[in-house]
Task: structure prediction
Amino acid sequence: MRDVAVIGVGMTKFGELWRSPLRDLFAEAAADCLTDAGIERSQVQSAYMGCMTSGLFNGQEHLAAILTDYAGLSPISATRVESACASGGVAFRSAWLEVASGASDFVLAGGVEKMNDGADATYCLSTAADQEYEVYHGVTFPGLYAMIARAHMHKYGTTREQLAHVAVKSHRNGAQNARAQFPTEINLDTVLNAVMVASPLGLFDCSPVSDGAAAVLLAPAEVARDLGKPVVKILGCGHATDAIALHDRQDLASIPAVKAAGDQAYAMAGVKPQDIDLCEVHDCFTIAELVCLEELGFFPRGEAAAATVDGATGLEGTIPVNTSGGLKSKGHPVGATGIAQIVELVEQLTGRSAKRQVKNPRLAMAQNMGGSGGSSTVHILEVSS
Amino acid sequence: MRDVAVIGVGMTKFGELWRSPLRDLFAEAAADCLTDAGIERSQVQSAYMGCMTSGLFNGQEHLAAILTDYAGLSPISATRVESACASGGVAFRSAWLEVASGASDFVLAGGVEKMNDGADATYCLSTAADQEYEVYHGVTFPGLYAMIARAHMHKYGTTREQLAHVAVKSHRNGAQNARAQFPTEINLDTVLNAVMVASPLGLFDCSPVSDGAAAVLLAPAEVARDLGKPVVKILGCGHATDAIALHDRQDLASIPAVKAAGDQAYAMAGVKPQDIDLCEVHDCFTIAELVCLEELGFFPRGEAAAATVDGATGLEGTIPVNTSGGLKSKGHPVGATGIAQIVELVEQLTGRSAKRQVKNPRLAMAQNMGGSGGSSTVHILEVSS
Result:
């Protein structure tokens, strides 16, 4: 298999983008990405688009074909992939495989979701859970993650105040990201006094409903070197699944698919958690960030909460987490999230992150998750000049 | 890239399967496939599932994770791919790439759709067309293909009687297929006197609304040889896209994405149309079979209709087409169709098709199409003992 690099990134602002149709969001991100890469549309040979449920949100399937057409890329091979909120991460993995195989040189990996389009977002998102055994009985995603949070509190003594620190940290980073949906700092009182959604998770423990798109261009590492830019190589890739229903798992305070995907990525890359310089994790809810950090080995189980309060995951901490603002502050157009994480990491690794820049990072990780953890991808990127 | 072979196939009966949930359909096909391959569940490393719109039909996304779990394959990497009615073909291509790359040895490619589950099938299927510029104005799929038929009639003199011969031929084959939804012969009068759906397409010019699943297992060709069975190698793969809205195309009597995908597959395989011994094409409507046969080079433009009447596409003809009964007689659970085509070809190439067996075929082609031709895959398989 060939070494593969990311040679260009692009994304829209995330937010309530009522004036932008689904197809325009993707076309904008793809155009930005190709400009950044310095590659012509005619050079792109294949594309993968992550999207969770344009069928339910927008009444539009056959998605890769229409997005490819409006991005000016037809008649290339184009594949839409879906793994709920991990759709972007899975699109990135698919694009990596196609370049690694030697079948294509320039492959676009994109993600898009337009959640503000009139549909019932709570219902649309619930389709990432088990319809027959969870959703029919009234559970929604805040409810599922609230159960994970309660289990974590019970087992490890995690507190509501500690969860609130995750949101405060994410907004502090997101306030420096012009593309964030909520680029505003918040304080502990705001989080703790917010309306309760599903106890113990209040409004500021939850990521928002968002529109947006992101795209990255992959090419053989040799080609990236020839372009004379820093080479951001995909060093490790992990992808795992699990039962999507919470009641089928042994321990509600853990998410095994994240650990499995992380272990694969670490093994392929030949690195350990302490080698990683920054990480974007899937903080759809504050509790998710803590559990994922523990599954990925950044902290022992039950210790991510206290470490967050101590500042270990801040910009100046031992492992800066969600420098983009994360899903919480940057926004969470579900199919785009996994690709937007890669955009953030590539910009950080190439020193383009301005006020939220981490100092001289070499290794970065993106962890993207579907539903309540029924699927997860983990990618490790390495920059070399 | 490594040579890749299909080492096992399985599928459910197609039909109105009200007693089988979506997840059970896939689990049944996957189990049959692994039994046929003689491979244990624990040996499967990755899976791709084609499904058009389980979100709209069944309220279930996050599909690959849940299907993998119920098939007993977790925690492997599993990816759902969507390209409307070409979802199965795209899943097959993705699985081929993963084995060809060297990343995995045993990869499952499946397809599933449960269309009889209470949802409005006409609306669900319409999401394969352009929502904003076609569907909002009232067009449905029979209407879109009726426009293609009218254009073909106008340009080439194709007649309604000739279209009817396609359906009669498909049902003649399907009557020999126990897994077909409608395993019954029909005659010309039945087709011509059926209720009109969208002129000139009557009820028997249209494929049905179906439930079903299919699965095939891919492995390196070397591994297939070691198993001591006939080796069915993937010799060519093509995948192309186009505008999904009919009004964006130059000629309604042609479907360029099919020609582009076919040209890619022929070039990769190093073969020509006259080398192909049998072909499964995407006959969602009778007119689609004729246009696809012309795009794939089996007949000059405008001549597929007369050739069908002459028997050229029958079991004893120069190019047997849709020996399975095709989408028309076998049924069309849209996400499963592309994989079910591969099942038919592998069984034909290995001499397992009983009364509908083609004599000593060596090369076979599957063409799977999304929407009104906004995407298409073409695969060429070769058997060697």
